[in-house]
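User: Structure please.
Assistant: Input sequence and predicted structure:
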Amino acid sequence: MANIRQTNLKDIKPSHRDISTSVIVLDTKFSDGGNHIWVADETGSFSAIVYGRSAKLINPGDKLKITSCRANLSNNVLELIINENAITCTGQDTMVFSERPNFSHFKWMIDEKDPNGPLVPSPVPEPPNEDSRYFWLPRYYVDKPRETKEATVPPPKTTRDEYKDSDNRQAKRGRKRDLRNSYSEPKRGSPTRRGR
């Protein structure tokens, strides 16, 4: 079987597919919004999204061999998309790596010198949000405001509403009383005297 060509993280461009690479996991963030991992090699680091239930078994320090993944450009930010079937753990804490540059912090834009050519990364990456625990994620993940649902409290009942509820209850009781009377047996009247 022919050896699969390994790609360094610095050489990954938008729309690249079937990427094979070896990386080490620096951090993980698993939530309902997706399974995000921070991976790196000796040329830099990337934010990646892993699909599959077994993604949560990945731990920081794992050395991963990825046989097939693709580069996805979203909000002008480049991330790796990896399926769980394309990952093999080959060791732990046994790899030389560099956290910087983080290639997921670069904005990809149109080249002014060649507008019809491929997109190029910004010369300087976006500064990470150091206040966040997951500063390595792209800024639009970290700075995205959380949606909070306010509890709806019904307004207090006024005196008019209380009277209305009382009238409704009385009306219901009156209807039940009328129904009982309508189904009761008719009263027997006094027998009429027949003439002789």
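The beta strands are 19-31, 34-41, 44-51, 62-74, 77-83, 87-92, 108-109, 120-121.
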